[in-house]
Design brief:
The chain is built from six helices and 46 strands. The protein is mainly beta. It folds into three domains: 158 residues, no CATH class; 193 residues, no CATH class; 212 residues, no CATH class. Strands 1, 3, 6, 7, 8, 10, 13 and 14 form an eight-stranded mixed β-sheet that branches. Strands 4, 5, 15, 22, 23, 24 and 29 form a seven-stranded mixed β-sheet that branches. The relative contact order is 0.12. The N terminus is likely disordered.
């Protein structure tokens, strides 16, 4: 091991184990030394020259990286109804508490108590002090030496531990499960001692490790989940022996365990005195930063070092999730022989993570086939299936997995920049239309058609016709050209019709055309993506028609449209479309005419992760299918701009 020269230059390195301060001072005051030893030509370390700090958990990054837990092995179990449990054991190196307090290297006060300080040269004990630490100050106990006297220009190993570790007659140390939470040890290995008195610091670490349970899902689990952690073998240490320097744990007694882990933290209140709930959500950096909900332990389960955590079993109860039932299940975290030797390390936090993934979504693949990602891993998905083909040709409907490319704009200031929205049409109206004289297409709609002679917009399922059948054109779109080919006159239709999925379509969809969806098709898509878990509390039209607005969960929406297998062979989502929160507008091909309104219909999507009403049934985001407020007048049609998402029949 490389020597640690006690000079300031060396220990300013970011990963220095200890020695925070070095001072040079003569020590000739032999009358203050009570050891009876001569200090002439020696290095004397007294209590005032000792500093102590508590290390954050998972501080030893090197140990984590070298451990199997840093490259988590995923074990999957089919829970039925399209729900899969994907389990990993991870060293949680990014936080210092269960509530994700950022991990820093800032010193934390060490717990008060009785401590022993030793200096070794090789395996030979060269000096020892025992005493009490109070507020970071070491005071020797009665009968203990009050300094350690060492020969200069030599290498030494320094060890500090508290009385939660017991000293054995052979100089080794022992710790029991009863003391696992409060046993500390700090070390300075192979430290070069100069001919000067040195101030040194111990970076104290927990001897034990701690574990917590975390469940991930794409719809919130709105209750606590209690799981049972058991050991199939009689191999969980209840006491361990360490060598004289606190290394190399060996179990001296073992047992089996049966512990309950309660993932009982999943929500909070948006305001302390208000009814609104915030469901806990986050990104997962180990899974392409997918956004997810989580249920988490609020307490830790502690283990002694050397515990074979990967050999344990975790039993989950039955759950209702994604509107479906998941059967009870038992999971073994690893049966891989390459990982059989993995054991817990000191001062490390481990996360038992279970991702409850829905794998039942269907996709349209580039070869024209339909199925789940799980059953078609070698194929390229191009669209999410909104409606299955019922046997009638082209009765299936799917929505593209990516937004349409809307071209680019150029300016002297910005150069060539990709467009994020476009116009529905560039052809303006000359006067306000009426329900008896349809405009742009042969059928116009009202948001709620009661008493107007017009149908509800969300009943419109004819986006393909509005895009590709020129016979549906009405003034001012009276030419014989389909809107899907009229880039100048109807940009939104054109960009949807010419959507490029990035791969050549073959098989039964080789000649299929993309189109701009009608309002009803967007509404049907939202329902399919949400597994029917839409809450229509925002506008069901009192039973007079299909919902034109409601609440929808943004995390399941994002997962459905971004799900893929990552480089580790695990099905994951991506970061939220457009960010974690915002309002996004998408064009439909439906056109609304009503009192004071003449405008293309839009699908508004307002995404906000985590917020819910207090009735327990609403979801954090909202959708609205209607005109764009403030731009609904007949002379504003060409001003309306939005994004485009193409649909396709199969």
């Amino acid at each position: 091991m490389k020597s640690n020269y006690l000079i300031l230059k060396t220990f300013l390195k970011p990963l220095a184990f200890a020695v925070l301060l070095i001072m040079v001072a003569g020590c000739q005051q032999e009358d203050n030394i009570s050891t009876g030893e001569s200090t002439t030509g020696k290095v004397v370390i007294t209590p005032t020259m000792l500093k102590f700090a508590e290390a954050p958990f998972s501080e030893d990054d090197g140990a984590i990286t070298r451990g199997a837990a840093e490259a988590p092995q995923t074990k999957s179990v089919d829970l039925g109804n399209g729900i899969e449990a994907q389990m990993t054991l991870e060293a949680d190196a990014k936080s210092d508490t269960i509530f994700k307090k950022p991990r820093t290297r800032a010193s934390q006060p060490l717990s008060n108590g009785f401590y022993t300080i030793r200096a070794f040269q090789g395996n030979t004990l060269k000096g020892e002090m025992k005493g009490y630490i109070n507020a970071g100050v070491f005071t020797p106990a009665t009968g203990s030496k009050n300094c350690i006297i060492l020969d200069p220009n030599q290498n030494y190993d320094f060890v500090c531990f508290n009385d939660k570790l017991s000293q054995n007659s052979d100089g080794t140390l022992s710790v029991t499960q009863a003391n696992v939470k409060t046993a500390y040890v700090g070390r300075l290995d192979n430290t070069y001692v100069t001919g000067k008195t040195q101030y040194i610091s111990f970076y104290m670490k927990h001897v034990g490790s701690r574990v917590y349970l975390e469940l991930h899902s794409f719809l919130p689990i709105k209750h606590a989940v209690s799981a049972t952690l058991t050991s199939p073998n009689n191999n969980v240490p209840t006491s361990v022996k360490l060598d004289e320097k606190g290394y190399n744990p060996i179990a001296t007694s073992v047992t089996t365990i049966n512990k309950t882990l309660a993932a009982n933290y999943w929500q909070g209140h948006l305001f302390p005195s208000g009814p609104d709930i915030v469901y806990c959500s986050s990104e997962d950096p180990k899974n392409d930063y997918e956004y997810h909900y989580y249920n988490r332990d609020t307490t830790y389960t502690w283990f002694l070092p050397g515990t074979p955590l990967r050999q344990m079993r975790l039993a989950l109860p039955s759950l209702t999730l994604y509107g479906k039932a998941a059967a009870p299940s038992t999971h073994l975290y690893s049966s891989d022989p390459a990982l059989s030797g993995f054991v817990t390390k000191e001062n490390t936090t481990y996360k038992l993570k279970i991702r409850l993934v829905y794998t039942g979504f269907k996709y349209l693949f580039s070869d024209g086939t339909v199925g789940t990602l799980k059953a078609n891993r070698t194929k390229t998905p191009i669209a999410f299936v909104v409606k299955d083909n019922d046997g009638t040709p082209n009765s299936g409907v799917a929505v593209a997995l990516k937004e349409a490319d809307l071209g680019s704009s150029w300016s002297p200031l910005t150069g060539n920049v990709k467009n994020t929205d476009c116009q529905w049409t560039t052809q303006s109206l000359s006067s306000a239309p009426s329900s008896y004289n349809p405009v742009y297409m042969t059928t116009n709609f009202n948001r709620f058609g009661t008493g107007t002679g017009l149908s509800d917009d969300v009943a419109d399922m004819n986006g393909y016709n509005w895009t590709w059948n020129p016979a549906t054109n009405a003034i001012p779109a009276s030419s014989g050209q389909a809107k899907g080919n009229d880039q100048w006159g109807f940009p939104a239709f054109y960009y949807a019709a010419h959507y490029d999925p990035g791969v050549t379509l073959t098989g039964t969809i080789a000649n299929q055309k993309w189109y701009l969806p009608a309002a009803g098709e967007w509404r049907t898509a939202l329902d399919a993506i949400s597994l029917g878990q839409i809450n229509n509390d925002r506008g069901y039209n009192s039973g007079n028609g299909a919902a034109g607005s409601g609440r929808i969960d943004p995390i399941i929406l994002n997962y459905a449209l971004t799900a893929h297998y990552n480089n580790n062979g695990v099905i994951v989502g991506n970061r939220p479309i457009g960010g974690q929160a915002g309002t996004f507008y998408y064009f439909t091909s439906s056109f609304i005419v009503g009192a004071g309104v003449a405008s293309p219909d839009l699908m508004w999507l307002s995404t906000s992760t985590g917020q819910s009403g207090n009735d327990g049934t609403t979801y954090p985001s909202s959708y609205v299918i209607q005109y764009l407020s403030g731009q609904q007048d007949w002379n504003q049609v060409t001003n309306v701009r939005a994004k485009v998402r193409a649909f396709i029949h199969f």
